[in-house]
Amino acid sequence: MGGLPAGKVEPTEHDYAEWERRVDALMTLLSGIKGGRKLMTVDELRKNIESIGPEAYDRMTYYERWITSITQTMIQRGIITTEELGRKMAEIQKRG
Amino acid sequence: MVEARYKPGDRVKVRKAYPLGHIRTPFYIRGHAGVVERLCGAFGNPEELAQQRSGEPKQPLYRVRFLQREVWPDYRGNPEDVVEIEIFQHWLE
Prior knowledge:
- The structure holds two protein chains of two kinds.
- By secondary structure, chain A is mostly helical.
- Chain A is built from five helices and no strands.
- By secondary structure, chain B is mostly beta strands.
- Chain B has one domain: Roll (SH3 type barrels).
- The chains are: A mainly alpha, B mainly beta.
- Chains A and B meet through helix 2 of A and helix 1 of B.
């Protein structure tokens, strides 16, 4: 990563989970490349992935990094508030 | 659009700078010299696009070729091996 010393790269194949497909679709829609409002750029996606702490970054999977970054971008742009996000998360958790 | 200053074959050096923000120029290549392989076109500046700004004017983007052995001091592969990196014009001098 970024020219830092690291171990061997082990490529693996896996099928995408439904939530991973949704995260990908979410990014396409928010980018406005299919029409509609452009609510974020791929550069913001990258910027906010870079700002994930190294420990959390290593722990997360590819699309976990994406949804973390997308969420952060939506908060930065004022599309959603932390308050709304917290309440919605609690509501969904209650569904079990 | 910013006018392209370099053409294929030109020798260029990557600026050795470490500003904050979202930078596409990898750390490991800053300060190294290479040769322009091609002009890829002109694109919105990602450093600006990452901060909710327009990214205009578009910046020329080049594919630059570097010798692996000059980038990595302990490189043991073929001495002619290269690494090609796409770099925006404002990072070249």
